[in-house]
Specification:
The protein is mostly helical. The protein has 2 domains: 16-200, no CATH class; 227-423, no CATH class. 85% of the residues lie in helices and 0% in strands. The chain contains 17 helices and no strands. It has helices spanning 2-14, 17-41, 44-60, 68-78, 82-113, 115-118, 122-129, 131-147, 151-197, 215-246, 249-258, 260-264, 267-282, 287-321, 331-357, 361-386, 388-423. Helix 3 crosses helix 9, helix 4 (68-78) runs antiparallel to helix 5 and helix 16 (361-386) runs antiparallel to helix 17.
Length: 424
C-alpha cells in the first residue's frame, strides 16, 4: 500500500502536479486581491451590479462553445498523434467560437427583450456576455497544453491570467470605475490566450476534419458542460433557499462564510484530477492501471480526509473566530459541511471524472440534476425546522450520495466500456 502511494505521488510530481498545486493556490490569492482592489476603487453599490451580471454569465461560461472544450480534452487524450490533437484543436476553436458568438447574440437579444428584469445591469450583462468566447478560447488553450503533457506551462497560463486580471482591474477600475472592471473581466482571458496560443505551434492553414469528430463528440461535450453548470448550481442553491425560506439575509451571510473553508478544500482533489486526467484517459483501456490508480488515490485521500476531519474538529472554533465571534455558534453546521467535503474528496471527485473519461458525462449530468431536485425537496423541510444546520445536513447527505452513485455507476459502466472495446 505504501509503495502504491509512493507511485501515485511520484507520478503526480513527474507530471508537474506540484506546479498546478502552487499555481492553484497563487491564483486563489490573486483572485482575492483582485476582488479587494475592485472594492477599494468602485462604489460597492455599483460594483454589486457588475457582480450580479457576471454571476449570471458565470453560469453560462461552462457551456461556451457548447462544451467543445470538454470534448477536446477527452478525445484529444484518446488520439495518439500530435497531428490529430492539433486537428481536433482547430476544429474545436472554429466551431466553438461560432457557437459562443451565437450564445452572446442570444444573451443580448434576451437582455433587450426583458431589460426590465435586469434593471440598470443590462449594459454590464451585454458587455460581460463577450466573456463567453474569451473564456472559451482561454480554456481550450489550457486544455491543449495539458494534452501535450505540458502541465507546467498550463500552470503558467493560469497564473499569467490572474496577474493580467489584477493589473487590468487596477488600471481600468481606477480609470473607468465599474465599466472598466467589466471590460477587464472580458479582455483578461483574451490577452492571456493570445500570449500563449502561439507557443502551441499549430499550423492553422491546414484544415482537415479528424475522423474522430462525430455526433458523439458533440454530445459528450454538451453533457459535460451541462453537468458543470448543474454542479455549480448545486453549490449555490443552498444559499438561494436559505434566503427564500428564512427571509433572513444574516443567515445567508453566515452560511456563505462557514461553507468557504469546506468548499475551498475541494481544490486538493481537483489538482490531482487536473494533473492526471489526460494520463488516465490515455490508459483507460488498461484495467489494471485504472484499478491500481483508484486504490492508491483512495488510500491517499482517506488519509488526507482523516487529517482534515480531526483538525477541523480540534480547531473549529479558532477557524470560525477568523470570521467573527458570532460564527462560533455555527460550529455544528461547519463540521457537517467538512464531512460533506470529505465525501467529494474521496468519492465524487474521482468517480465523477472517471465517468467522464469513459464518455459517460451524461450520467454526471443526470446525477447532478437529481441532486438538485432532492436538495430542494429536503431543504423545504429541513431549513424551516433546523435553519442553516438543515441546509448543511442536506448538502452533506447529497455530497456522499452522489459520490456513492458515481462510484457504482462507474464500475457498472466500465465493464461494458471494456467489453465494447474488445468487440471493436
Amino acid at each position: 500500500m505504501i509503495d502504491g502511494l509512493k507511485d501515485l505521488l511520484s507520478g503526480f510530481r513527474n507530471r508537474n502536479g506540484m506546479s498546478i498545486f502552487y499555481a492553484t493556490i497563487l491564483a486563489r490569492i490573486l483572485s482575492f486581491f483582485t476582488s479587494w482592489i475592485a472594492l477599494q476603487l468602485i462604489d460597492s453599490k455599483d460594483l454589486g451590479v457588475v457582480i450580479y451580471a457576471f454571476t449570471i454569465i458565470s453560469f453560462i461560461i461552462p457551456i461556451s462553445g457548447l462544451g467543445l472544450h470538454q470534448s477536446l480534452i477527452r478525445y484529444g487524450s484518446l488520439s495518439a498523434s500530435d497531428t490529430t490533437k492539433n486537428q481536433i484543436f482547430k476544429y474545436v476553436l472554429n466551431k466553438g467560437l461560432i457557437s459562443s458568438v451565437v450564445l452572446v447574440l442570444l444573451i443580448i437579444l434576451i437582455s433587450l427583450l426583458f431589460k426590465s428584469y435586469f434593471l440598470n445591469g443590462i449594459n454590464y450583462l451585454i458587455i460581460l456576455s463577450f466573456a463567453i468566447p474569451t473564456f472559451f478560447l482561454l480554456e481550450i488553450v489550457k486544455v491543449q497544453y495539458r494534452l501535450k503533457h505540458q502541465n507546467k506551462t498550463f500552470a503558467l497560463v493560469e497564473v499569467s491570467y490572474n496577474i493580467l486580471l489584477i493589473i487590468l482591474v487596477t488600471i481600468l477600475s481606477y480609470t473607468y470605475k465599474e465599466m472598466g472592471y467589466a471590460i477587464a473581466l472580458v479582455i483578461a482571458p483574451l490577452l492571456t490566450s493570445v500570449l500563449f496560443i502561439k507557443k502551441l505551434n499549430i499550423d492553422f492553414k491546414i484544415k482537415v476534419k479528424p475522423d474522430i469528430i462525430n455526433f458523439g463528440f458533440w454530445k459528450y461535450g454538451f453533457f459535460a458542460s451541462l453537468s458543470n453548470v448543474a454542479t455549480k448550481f448545486l453549490t449555490a442553491i443552498d444559499i438561494i433557499l436559505i434566503g427564500y425560506l428564512l427571509k433572513n439575509s444574516e443567515m445567508v451571510t453566515v452560511y456563505k462564510y462557514i461553507s468557504l473553508i469546506p468548499l475551498s478544500l475541494l481544490f486538493i482533489s481537483q489538482v490531482f484530477i487536473t494533473t492526471d486526467f489526460v494520463n488516465l484517459t490515455e490508459n483507460i483501456y488498461n484495467k489494471n492501471y485504472i484499478k491500481k490508480y483508484i486504490k492508491n488515490y483512495m488510500f491517499l485521500f482517506v488519509f488526507i480526509s482523516i487529517c482534515i476531519g480531526f483538525s477541523s474538529w480540534l480547531f473549529a472554533e479558532d477557524l470560525l473566530l477568523f470570521f467573527g465571534t458570532e460564527f462560533v455558534n455555527y460550529k455544528a453546521s461547519f463540521l457537517v459541511l467538512i464531512l460533506g467535503a470529505i465525501g467529494i474528496l474521496i468519492l465524487r471527485g474521482l468517480y465523477g471524472n472517471l465517468l467522464s473519461i469513459i464518455g459517460k458525462a451524461n450520467i454526471n449530468y443526470y446525477i447532478a440534476i437529481s441532486a438538485i431536485v432532492l436538495n430542494v425537496i429536503l431543504n423545504y423541510y429541513l431549513i424551516p425546522n433546523y435553519g442553516i444546520y438543515g441546509a448543511a445536513l442536506t448538502s452533506t447527505l447529497l455530497m456522499w450520495v452522489t459520490g456513492i452513485i458515481s462510484c457504482f455507476a462507474f464500475y457498472k459502466l466500465y465493464k461494458k466500456f471494456l467489453v465494447h472495446q474488445k468487440l471493436e
